[in-house]
Structure formats: C-alpha cells, structure tokens
C-alpha cells in the first residue's frame, strides 16, 4: 500500500498550503483593517481608548497568526484574550446606550473568559501535553 502513503503525504502537503494561504489572507486583512483604523484616527485628528483597544485586538490577531506559523498550533488563550479586549471595547463604546444590567452581563462575560484563561493555564502547567516523541495513551 505505498500509494496510500503517497496520497496521504500529498494531502497533508495540500492542507499545509491551504492553511498557509488562509493565514496569509488573515494577515493581509488584519493589516488592511489596522490601516483603515489608523486612517480613521488621522482623519479625525484624535485617538480614543476605543481606537487603541481596536489596534490592540488587531495586533493580537497578527500575533495569533505568527504563533500558528511558528508553533503549528494555536494557543487557546490567545482568542480568549482577544474576546476579553473586544468585550471591554464594547463596554467602552456602548455603555451610554446600554442598560446597567446589560453592562453587568458583559462584565461577567469578561470575568468568565478570565477564569477560562486561568483554568487553561493551570491545565497546561499541571497536565501538560505529551511531547511529540512520547506516546500518548488516549
């Protein structure tokens, strides 16, 4: 069955190319979004906390792409951080129009995400993944 190995290798190579192309598109789109955000700030001649948080979110997306390329996998904590910053930005932008209870719910969502980061981090420290050269028993 040597043809299976050839097909499998070709399939894995194709998936790798598709992943890299998708990551490159995400990187380009993120850079375009950052450029648009900067152009908006320049046109307004003003920088707000919301603008800075958006740039931070975009920078985190770029870091996520870099981490995926470097490690070959995506650290779970990165999207959680992005979600927390996005919710904080939402609170800053929309608290004037939102009822107090809604702001509390969004704040609780941020707290849940922060707890999830702690749980994931604790799990990585106390229950690390087996190394690639070790056999997993699952």
Folded structure, characterized:
This protein has helices spanning 2-44, 49-71, 77-94, 100-126. It has one domain. It is an all-alpha fold and 138 residues long. The protein is flat, with a radius of gyration of 20 Å. It is built from four helices and no strands.
Query: Oligomer, anyone?
Result: single chain
Poorly predicted tracts of residues = none
Order of helices and strands: HHHH
Structural class category: mainly alpha
Overall mean confidence score, pLDDT: 87
Share of helix, binned: over 70%
**How many angstroms separate the termini?**
26 Å
Number of domains: 1
Please tell me how large the radius of gyration is: 20 Å
Strand content: under 5%
Shape: flat
Largest sheet, in brief, is:
none
Please report the number of helical segments. 4
Labels describing this entry:
mainly alpha, 4 helices
Summarize the structure.
This protein is mainly alpha-helical and 138 residues long. It has helices spanning 2-44, 49-71, 77-94, 100-126.
List the helices and strands and how they pair.
Blueprint lengths: L1 H43 L4 H23 L5 H18 L5 H27 L12
Helix pairs in contact: 1-2, 2-3, 3-4
